[in-house]
Write a structure and sequence with these properties.
Layout lengths: L3 H11 L4 H8 L3 H9 L6 H10 L9 H12 L17 H13 L1
Length: about 110
Amino acid sequence: MKTIVEDLVSARKARGWTQAQLAERTMLSRATVQKVETDKTDPHFSTLYEMSRAMGMELMVVPSALREELEMFVRAGGKWLGHPPGVSAPLSIVDEILNIEGNHKR
């Protein structure tokens, strides 16, 4: 599993941004961005937050007890919690609401 820092580095590179460009967008120093990306120590949450926000991403803090279920939810494409990955999932609640609204408009 990739780390948050690896995801942020991938996102920065996918945008074609240099560390200096990300630093400018976050009001962090280039040295701070470089340290986060290359140092093996834990960066401050606020630094990760600013870096992710600048790239249109959100950090989410999840209770440890819900992590596995949330990961399964994401892997299932946003369908029901606890749905095993790789199995055709039922409609999500959003899909069901949209179907109900669509039927009322007909």
